[in-house]
Amino acid sequence: MSLPSQQALSGMVVAIDGPSGSGKSSVSRGVAARLGLRYLDTGAQYRAMTYWMLQNKVDVGDPAAVAADAGTPVIVSGTDPAAPAIGVDGEDVAVQIREADVTGAVSAVAAVPEVRARLIALQREIIGGGGIVVEGRDIASVVAPAAGAKIFLTASQEARAARRNTENGGGAGGVAATREALTRRDSVDSRTNALAAAPGAVVVDATELTLEQVIEQVAGIVIHTAEGTAPDAASQGVGLTR
Ligand SMILES: Nc1ncnc2c1ncn2[C@@H]1O[C@H](COP(=O)(O)OP(=O)(O)OP(=O)(O)O)[C@@H](O)[C@H]1O
Ligand SMILES: Nc1ccn([C@H]2C[C@H](O)[C@@H](COP(=O)(O)O)O2)c(=O)n1
C-alpha cells in the first residue's frame, strides 16, 4: 500500500468509534503507526478521571459530587502510537486505569456532563490541527464531527468477549462472564452515547477479520479519503452510513 503525501495526511483527523472490545485501541494504534499519525485514546482519559475520583474518595455514584471535582485532576495524554501514555497529577496511571475498580465505575463517571465538557475540551485541544487518529464513543458525532475519515468499528459480542477473555488470560467465569460484563458496560454506555455509526461513518465489522486485516482495511479507507478517492463501500465489503 503506497502512502499519499505527508501533506495530505498531516491535517487529517481520523475518528474511530465503536463498542467495548471491538478493537478500537489496537486498530487505531496500528493505523496511526502505519500512516505516521498521532494517536489519542479518549477512553483512557475517562478512565484516568475515574481513577482520580476513586483515589480521592469521591462517591462516583453521586453525579453532583463527581461534577464538583471534574475540573480538578490534571490529565495528560501522550500521543505516540508506539508508547501511548496517560497521567493524572503527574502519576503514570497506564496500568491502574485498566483495573476492575476503574472499569466498574467509568461508565457512571463518563455520564456526568461536567466530566464530558472538560474532557471534550481537552480532546479538541490535543487534536489541534489534526494528523491524528482519535478513538472513543463520540468522536465522529461530538468531539470532531468534521473529521476527514470516520470509522465505526464493530464485531459480534461473541468475538469481542472471546478476544477480551484471551487478553485477560481467561479469568474467572471465562468467556461467558466476560461477555456479560461487556454487554452490561455497552448497555450503560449507550445511555450516554448512541453505540451506532455517525452519519458519514464507514462501518467496519471485524468479527471475521484478523487485527492485521482490520488495520489494512481502515488504513486503506484513510488513504483513499486523504487522496479524495474514497472507494465505494460495497467494493470494500463495508457499509457507509449517510
Ligand atoms: N480483529 C481482531 N482479531 C483478533 N483480536 C483482536 C482483533 N481486534 C482486536 N483484537 C484483540 O481484542 C482485544 C480488545 O481490543 P481493544 O482493546 O483494541 O478494543 P477496544 O475497542 O479498544 O476496547 P475498549 O473499548 O474496552 O477499550 C485485544 O486483546 C486485541 O488484541
Ligand atoms: N469518547 C469516549 C470514550 C470512552 N467513554 C467511556 C465509555 C467507556 O465505558 C469508558 C472507557 O472507555 P474504553 O477504555 O473502554 O474505551 O469511557 C466515553 O463515554 N466517551
TrEMBL record:
Its EC number is 2.7.4.25. Pfam families: Cytidylate_kin. GO terms for biological process: pyrimidine nucleotide metabolic process. One of its GO terms (molecular function) is dCMP kinase activity. Signal peptide: none annotated. Its main location: cytoplasm. Belongs to the cytidylate kinase family. Type 1 subfamily. This is Cytidylate kinase. It comes from Catenulispora acidiphila (strain DSM 44928 / JCM 14897 / NBRC 102108 / NRRL B-24433 / ID139908). The lineage of its organism: Bacteria, Bacillati, Actinomycetota, Actinomycetes, Catenulisporales. The gene is cmk.
